[in-house]
Amino acid sequence: MINFGYTRVTTPKAAVEALVKNSNAQWLAGGTNLVDLMKKGVIVPQNLIDINNLPLKEIKKDNGKLHIGALALNSDVAENDLVRQQQPLLSLALQAGASQQIRNMATIGGNMMQRTRCSYFYNPDMPCNKREPGTGCGALKGFNRMHAIFGTSEKCIAVHPSDMCIALVALDATVLITGPKGERRISFQNFHRLPGDAPQRDNTLERGELITGIEIPDNAFKDHFHYLKIRDRTSYAFALVSVAAAVSLQGDTIQDVRLAMGGVAHKPWRLVEAENFLKGKSASEANFRQAAAVAMKGAQGFGHNNFKLKLAPNTLVEALKTATGKA
Ligand code: SF4
């Protein structure tokens, strides 16, 4: 690891000012991804600004919405009574991520900011447009078993790695931000971005903008939900495909439904067309299969990851069956 400066700040304003002042600085929260990236030489910041003492750890109900501070720990949020009662899908998705030890260190904001685990991105000797724009994409014609099937570009086919974010996009969360130009809010759907011509940008934050928290509106999904994560081993592995499913039922009729997939795109992949197909229909496997066919429109494999074209719709059907008690 290369030497770097270290500063500790105690207010969001000071955190923003310190970052804007240093052109090659990074904020340090739990460090569960950043420190790995520094050790491998993927990211080489000259200064780390430690934000762990900012007052952003609160979990509370605010105006009918669940508010979670950006520095709340993944394990604290997953085990929090309010979260379990109000947004149980979020708790389930958090528990599916990483290991208990990592969840004890990782923050909610850091979870949203973590980088793809594409092996070419992590190896500075390999071409990667995300790490070094213009060098090419090693995965496109290389070993791409973990890679995306939706929303790819010729510049990058990486996937977003978080489990928590798949639940948050399904739950219509909002990201709260402060920055050099003041405060703003971004819908979770618009927070992460597709690679397009600029795969080096994972999200829509501007330089110096700090996540202060998230808000999740109340919903009718407390009884019928599931987060199904398919991976190579049952713990401490990233998703090959995951599905967040939340359903509101009246009798056997689907009143409302939210669906999102992980492990398939550069951003948490919301399945709005499949949701619209299911609304007003009965909760049956036949309807779930048709919704899965709708969800898979436009999917494209790149060779090693072609199995996801079958795994993804099957995972969606199984998640819906479990969420609605049809498993
Ligand atoms: Fe880099 Fe994206 Fe290609 Fe992976 S998929 S090598 S992250 S450009």
Automatic annotation (TrEMBL):
PROSITE patterns, alphabetized: FAD_PCMH
One Pfam family cited in the UniProt record for this chain: FAD_binding_5
SUPFAM superfamilies (UniProt xref): CO dehydrogenase flavoprotein C-terminal domain-like, FAD-binding/transporter-associated domain-like
PANTHER family per the UniProt record, alphabetical: XANTHINE DEHYDROGENASE FAD-BINDING SUBUNIT XDHB-RELATED, XANTHINE DEHYDROGENASE SUBUNIT C-RELATED
Keywords linked to the UniProt accession: FAD, Flavoprotein, Plasmid
Protein name: Xanthine dehydrogenase family protein subunit M
Domain of life of the organism encoding this protein: Bacteria
One GO MF term: oxidoreductase activity
UniProt domain FAD-binding PCMH-type: residue ranges: 1-221
SMART domains: CO_deh_flav_C (SM01092)
